Amino acid sequence: MASTSTAYKRSYGDRAKAQSNPAARALLETMERKKTNLCVSVDTVKPADFLAIIDAVGPYICLIKTHIDILEDFEWSIIERLEELAKKHDFLIFEDRKFADIGNTVAMQYAAGVYKIASWAHITNAHPVPGPSIVKGLSSIGFPLQRGLLLLAEMSTAGALTKGTYTEEAVQMARVHNDFVIGFIAQRRMNGIGAAPGEAQDEDFIILTPGVGLEAKGDAMGQQYRTPREVVLESGCDVIIVGRGVYGKDLSDIDGIRARAERYRGEGWSAYLERIAS
Ligand code: BMP
């Protein structure tokens, strides 16, 4: 049953006001303030490239997405620098950790270990595959720190198993824990999915969507790209996540990276303006 919730047609700023989770509110407020729905995914191996790219794209983004375990020679000063850049450019941090274990284990993976993700990432994500206990485990660490969680309700890759009742049950899980689960990694709007008629009228999950590219249609390993317009206007998603489309092949071409971030920001924002005007 699809929802009649029209939350996604309201402005990001307006939607921020109704969010109880501080990370969700901060993300939507940042989007409104900076006029951007672009999240750049910085999937680089060398810390120097990682930090230089973040500094270059900072003005154009609402959120930076990290895979912290890709970095070589990890040291804590990288996190300190990342936090400085987040302050300098006014963006939030999303660690794309994709937790997928039992509650007791994910709580330790989130709080401790080398990366201590909960201490610096405003937002992280999890696969719903273990069931509600994964949310309980992560929430026991993240909720008191005012963090937010995204569930992976759909993936962008060809042949992904995240469909049908799996996606529906992910939305049900989020609904039960909507103080901590702020939205989804998904390819379309999720409000109201699986809800009984009349239920979930006002729900407003934030949808962050990877698999966004203006040039390529995919890669050699199953990734599939759609344009910002398809994602934001046609599918009702909120944040476009762009990796290679922004940082490209030459990580030293900082001017090119900056220009591409500006372009994706423009495309994402005009699709959003068209959506809220419709
Ligand atoms: P790119 O734009 O270069 O294809 O990168 C996409 C990023 O989003 C990668 O970091 C990947 O791990 C992530 N991602 C994805 O591509 N599809 C999903 O369904 C979920 C993801 O987190």
From TrEMBL:
Signal sequence span is none
The reaction(s) annotated as catalysed by this protein in its Swiss-Prot or TrEMBL entry are: orotidine 5'-phosphate + H(+) = UMP + CO2
State the top-level EC class: lyase
Can you cite a GO biological process for this protein? Answer: 'de novo' UMP biosynthetic process
Which residues belong to any copy of the Orotidine 5'-phosphate decarboxylase domain? 37-254
The record ties this protein, via InterPro entries, to: Aldolase_TIM, OMPdecase, OMPdecase_AS, OMPdeCOase_dom, RibuloseP-bd_barrel
- Active site residues of this protein: D96, K98, D101
Alphabetically list the UniProt keywords.
Answer: Decarboxylase, Lyase, Pyrimidine biosynthesis
Which Pfam families does the record cross-reference, listed alphabetically?
Answer: OMPdecase (PF00215)
UniProt: substrate binding residues: D43, K65, S156, Q223, G243, R244
Q: What Gene3D superfamilies does the record tag this protein with?
A: Aldolase class I
Q: Which CDD domains match?
A: OMP_decarboxylase_like
Keyword ATP-binding applies:
no
EC number(s) on record?
4.1.1.23
Q: What GO molecular function terms would the record report? A: orotate phosphoribosyltransferase activity; orotidine-5'-phosphate decarboxylase activity
The pathway noted for it is: Pyrimidine metabolism; UMP biosynthesis via de novo pathway; UMP from orotate: step 2/2
Which family does the record claim for this protein? Answer: Belongs to the OMP decarboxylase family.
The protein's name: Orotidine 5'-phosphate decarboxylase
In which organism is this protein found?
A: Coprinellus micaceus (Glistening ink-cap mushroom)
